[in-house]
C-alpha cells in the first residue's frame, strides 16, 4: 500500500492546532475565550481557511465549541464531563504505565532525567505557567515513551481538556499535580514494578480530581411570566 502524501495544507492546519492546543493547555487561553479568526490569522500569519479547518478539528475533539452567529470559543466543560475525562485518564494512563518496561526507561533515561530536573526547578519557583507546563509534560512524556501512539494521542487530548477543567473547577490557584508523586512513578517503572506504578498513578489522578469543586448545582427554576412581566 502506498504511503499517504501529507499536503502543505494538512501541515499548516496541524501547526495551528498545535499552537492553540499548547496555549489552552498552559492556561494562556482560559475557558470561554472567544477565538476570533482574524486575530488568529494575523498572529500566526495563517490562511483563514486553514484557521477555520483547525478550529473545526478542535471542536471535534471537544476542546473548542463553535456556535452559529457567535463563532468559536475555548470549551467550558461541565462537571459531568470533568468526571468523565478523569475516568478516561485513569484508564489510559494506567495502560500507559503498564506498557513501559525497564528497558524503555533505560533507553529514555536522559529524557526522563532532564524532564524531572526541569519539573523540580519549575515547582520550586513561582511561575505558574511554567509549573503547569512541566507538570503536564510529565504525563505526555510517559505517553510518548510508551511507544503506543494511539494511547499517546488520546492522552494529549485528555490533557488539554483537563487543563480547561482545572481552570474552571480547581479550588485554589496552586497547581495540584505533585512532583514527588511523579518521581515515585518513575522509580517504580525503573524497577519494573508496574503494579506500584499503576497504583501511584491512579492515586495521583484521584487526588487531582478531589481538588476540583465538581458538586452538581441545580439550575435555578425560572418563572417565565414573572421574568417577562412589565417589559
Automatic annotation (TrEMBL):
<dbReference type="GO" id="GO:0003700">
    <property type="term" value="F:DNA-binding transcription factor activity"/>
</dbReference>
<dbReference type="Pfam" id="PF00392">
    <property type="entry name" value="GntR"/>
</dbReference>
<dbReference type="InterPro" id="IPR011711">
    <property type="entry name" value="GntR_C"/>
</dbReference>
<dbReference type="InterPro" id="IPR000524">
    <property type="entry name" value="Tscrpt_reg_HTH_GntR"/>
</dbReference>
<feature type="domain" description="HTH gntR-type">
    <location>
        <begin position="10"/>
        <end position="77"/>
    </location>
</feature>
<dbReference type="InterPro" id="IPR036390">
    <property type="entry name" value="WH_DNA-bd_sf"/>
</dbReference>
<keyword id="KW-0805">Transcription regulation</keyword>
<keyword id="KW-0804">Transcription</keyword>
<dbReference type="InterPro" id="IPR008920">
    <property type="entry name" value="TF_FadR/GntR_C"/>
</dbReference>
<dbReference type="InterPro" id="IPR036388">
    <property type="entry name" value="WH-like_DNA-bd_sf"/>
</dbReference>
<protein>
    <submittedName>
        <fullName>Transcriptional regulator, GntR family</fullName>
    </submittedName>
</protein>
<keyword id="KW-0238">DNA-binding</keyword>
<dbReference type="GO" id="GO:0003677">
    <property type="term" value="F:DNA binding"/>
</dbReference>
<dbReference type="Pfam" id="PF07729">
    <property type="entry name" value="FCD"/>
</dbReference>
Amino acid at each position: 500500500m502506498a504511503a499517504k502524501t501529507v499536503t502543505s495544507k494538512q501541515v499548516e492546519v496541524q501547526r495551528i492546532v498545535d499552537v492553540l492546543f499548547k496555549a489552552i493547555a498552559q492556561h494562556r487561553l482560559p475557558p470561554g475565550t472567544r477565538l476570533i479568526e482574524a486575530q488568529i490569522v494575523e498572529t500566526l500569519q495563517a490562511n483563514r481557511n486553514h484557521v477555520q479547518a483547525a478550529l473545526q478539528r478542535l471542536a471535534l475533539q471537544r476542546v473548542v465549541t463553535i456556535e452559529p452567529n457567535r463563532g468559536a470559543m475555548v470549551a467550558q466543560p461541565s462537571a459531568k464531563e470533568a468526571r468523565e475525562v478523569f475516568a478516561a485518564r485513569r484508564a489510559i494512563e494506567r495502560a500507559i504505565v503498564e506498557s513501559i518496561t525497564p528497558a524503555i526507561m533505560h533507553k529514555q533515561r536522559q529524557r526522563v532525567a532532564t524532564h524531572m530536573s526541569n519539573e523540580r526547578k519549575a515547582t520550586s519557583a513561582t511561575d505558574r505557567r511554567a509549573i503547569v507546563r512541566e507538570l503536564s509534560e510529565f504525563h505526555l512524556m510517559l505517553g510518548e515513551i510508551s511507544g503506543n501512539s494511539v494511547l499517546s494521542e488520546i492522552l494529549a487530548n485528555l490533557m488539554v481538556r483537563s487543563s480547561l477543567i482545572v481552570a474552571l473547577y480547581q479550588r485554589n490557584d496552586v497547581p495540584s499535580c505533585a512532583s514527588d508523586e511523579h518521581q515515585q512513578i518513575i522509580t517504580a517503572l525503573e524497577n519494573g514494578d508496574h503494579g506500584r506504578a499503576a497504583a501511584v498513578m491512579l492515586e495521583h489522578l484521584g487526588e487531582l480530581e478531589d481538588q476540583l469543586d465538581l458538586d452538581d448545582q441545580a439550575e435555578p427554576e425560572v418563572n417565565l411570566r414573572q421574568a417577562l412581566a412589565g417589559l
